[in-house]
Queue: 4 jobs
Job 1
Amino acid sequence: MSERTPLAAAQVALIALFVTALVTAQVTAAKILAFSIPVSLPVTGATLILPGAALAYALTFFASDCYAELYGKRAAQVMVNVAFLMNGVLLVLIWSTILAPAAATSIDPTQFRQVLGASTNIVIASLAAYLVSQNWDVIVFHRLREATDGDALWLRNVASTASSQLIDTLIFVTLGFLVIPELLGVGVAPPLPVIASLIVGQYLLKLLIALVDTPFVYAVVGFVRSRDATIPTTEREPQ
């Protein structure tokens, strides 16, 4: 039992990080952030505009890459797809609370609905983007593992995350801030230049995180392998 404790602790920690970042992303994405940058870029200009969920969601790819490297493709896909179902649970819980009767001492139910109800289009868009991009991330990660014979963790981390983040950003922003608000009348769709800025700004941040987090992926993977004898000390595919 004691020999399995580090393995269980590492798995729980990575799953917890993945789910926590994912849920945080769902409830914070409706806020649009604006960051001034020292240079003017095409589309965005001197201000990066991005959904509030960008940082939290980027952490999910860090957690899934660590998890996939340590525990294999099948385990990573199970984590990704179970978490997908949990997004549906989140949406049900949010709306059950919105629709439940409010006490006289409650905060204004209308304001409560405006804040959390705005997450509906975000969660729906995120479900679609998440299902495609996270599974793509796992597939590309392991295809590159096979192509490099288990070497170059940095390559599969950056390449899988960069490509999946692009897919995720395009689907998420287009559906969540443009298509769904227009179809369902949930919120107000921003102008197209803002949509374009959201896509570029979010992807630039995610791409930067994909590059910066590579040493941390190595650190986490190396630490877990050094603490648990059941995990291969090389980059061979876990069975």
Job 2
Amino acid sequence: MKALTATRYGGAETLRLADLPIPEPGPGQVQVRIAAAGLNPADLRLVSGVFKERVPLTFPHVLGSDFAGTVTAIGAGVDRFVPGDEIFGLGLSRSAGALARLLCDPPPFTTGTMAEYAVFEATTPALAPRPSGLPAEHAATLPMAALTAFPLLRAWDFAPGTKVLVVGATGGVGGAVVPLLAARGVHVIATAIPADETYVKGLGAAETIDRSADVGAETLRRHPGGLDALVNLALPGGDLPALTPVVRPGGGLFTVAFPSPAPGTGFETLYATARPGDLEEVAELAMRGVLAPTAGRRYRLEDAARAYTGWEREHVRGKLVVTVQQT
């Protein structure tokens, strides 16, 4: 089979399309014919080597976590899925044991989704049926983004009328966070470049602030009493203390970006988690139009390395998705 692999630690320049054996499912596993796969920042972060002490990779390493596809074979003891089932979800390399266990239990181990076939643990809550009305390309952009957004919405009372600054709203996670907050009646102020203003408002943002401006000063100029919460999806932790004055005393300070801020800054770092039923809810929200398609660019598997190069070097709006096989 064809698969996008990293041959060593480094950036997108290490990626190669390779011919590999089709992975076979063992006990408790399912084999999936991948239709589409979504890119995530963590894909390149693992390859960069920044986590290699905790998450040592074996090369060649197949990239990819988000996916949608068709079950093609099952291992012994699997009764959750049968061949022919359309599913979607995410998985992490077995090397990422601690990170995978943080996401959910059982962990969502996979052989890598930027490939024609991948194997997954059948019982993980990071897999779910894909409704027939949910296109594979749309489904493949949802899992990591939505499963990062859900813990945020559970962490604080985002009541109707709440005023919240979302930093980094144009990225993949923003495509889930902004509409889910807006669906609750939250007044979302989103940072974005001017060219992305229409896109972010289409997600549900009530206001936008040019991210190249002094975001803190402009926020307080518009809302001198301060906001109820700040949600950071993009800035490294060291940049966050400068923005804390925009939030009134007692308000919420949250981040999902890497690296985390230093202790004592008041920010709570949240991680993607998958509870049983979460992805089924994600599918329902997508079918209702709450989680609309956010794929900014589409690539074929043979061009997947170029997709990661673009993500690494260029401004990206929404999610990048790779079409692996036609469904």
Job 3
Amino acid sequence: MMATDNEIEGGPRRHGGRYIYEELRKQILTLKLKPGVQLDEVSLAAQFGLSRSPVRDALARLITEGLVVILPNRTTLVTPFEIEEFPNYIAALDLMQRVVTRLAATQHRPEDLEAIREADAAYLNAVTRGDFQVMSELNKAFHMAIARAGRNPYFINYYERLLSEGQRLLHLHFDYIVSSASANRLGRDHDDIIQAIAARDGDAAEAAAHEHTVLFQRRFLDYMQQNLTAQISVT
């Protein structure tokens, strides 16, 4: 029997929208849905066996996260990523990473430092297992724990959007990262940041955050130069 509007609104619709959001988000971040791919409400509703309303809700949430975009002609796409914009992305990420990490060093409470260390331990466990999807989620969780320790909601919200975009880039070259660095070395990328925050050293925290961004940039550009130079010129 088909669900009524009230039944859909009260439970299954809300649950369905959350499921669609989580599934689409996972596919976008792991590049199963490629940048620039068109998303059609009718097709997605048929795919998930739900009405268009929860699909619309899921897409709206993905739009707020910057993972989906609506063009002026109302076409909905997975947000494209132009490699020419990579320097601009890195500049924005570097600035925000330095800011939130400095704030975490100067503003954190004991429970914040505990949350940061717990997030890093979970990330290291995923690195050891080689679980790429979990790695990217836990890496983001680690950096968001740092952002929350700084207690500035404007920085937190913008930083989260940058980290979500970065997850797609991480998945693009995860194989290269793991093959070019031991699991132990990869899992130690956060050590200097944590130590500086724990010491309440704002200058050291900002410097460590900058070095972390530079490391991400270098790994990505090395990957691009070794794997995609035939299609793309990287500067």
Job 4
Amino acid sequence: MAGHGEVGPTALRMMLGTHLRRLRERAGVSRSDAGWAIRASESKISRLELGRVGFKQRDVEDLLTLYGVTEPRERDRLLQLAHEANNRGWWHRYGDVTPDWFDAYLGLEAAAELIRTYEIQFVPGLLQTADYARAVARLTPQGARSEDEVERVVDLRTRRQRVLDREPPLKLWAVIEEAVLLRPIGGRQVLRDQLDALRTAVERPNITVQIIPIDTPGHPAGGGAFTILRFPRRDLPDVVYLEHLTSALYLDKREDVDTYTQTLNLLASTGPPPQQTADRLTSLLNQLPA
């Protein structure tokens, strides 16, 4: 959709996978039979339909034939989609400083029209200053990054933030635990500059931030941070992203997405309203030691 997010390879794989699943179900073909037709396993068909892996042109051709898709224009459209889905996104050049499982998220982020996130450890990446991102990049369990690698991570973070300035811009709604804004990652001055940057960011119409007070007795989001991505294409379901230390989960089943959406809605509706965020940031800034 012109003007919206970059419909990169991750989103295109999801779109094509959804189309192929619908065609398979309409034709009454099992995943096992579909796998046999392309000399693959049932699990391979499942991964293809979820957009988790790339598509071979020959496999798509064979599946379309199996599913009874004979109209030349429809076949050409889906084969072109398969070709485009195998292209690499701009973020691929940063693969040396990002884990493989994060690549899919970068593609989804670029394609999204709305991102809602709940954060308990760091300021959301799309709102981080360069110095804050630099300090976060140095917090790695795999051993110290070189300074060149740290700068590449910061470059990637800065490049990602362009989605907030495109036309139309990505809409970002972040619910942040107040403890995040008290943690002096990178030192007091880095935190001060980050809080000031957040105060500026919330003035933008496409950015909403809510702060959950540190003295809140408890809430249902006890499982940790998560992100929900929504896309302008109806072909693409909402996706919940859960990041772990060495991997990530991407959930798009309706019941999973609904559970996380309801949890985030409850957090947003019971926490202080966004209109109070700028004043709270000012208060936190004033409390910082000089």
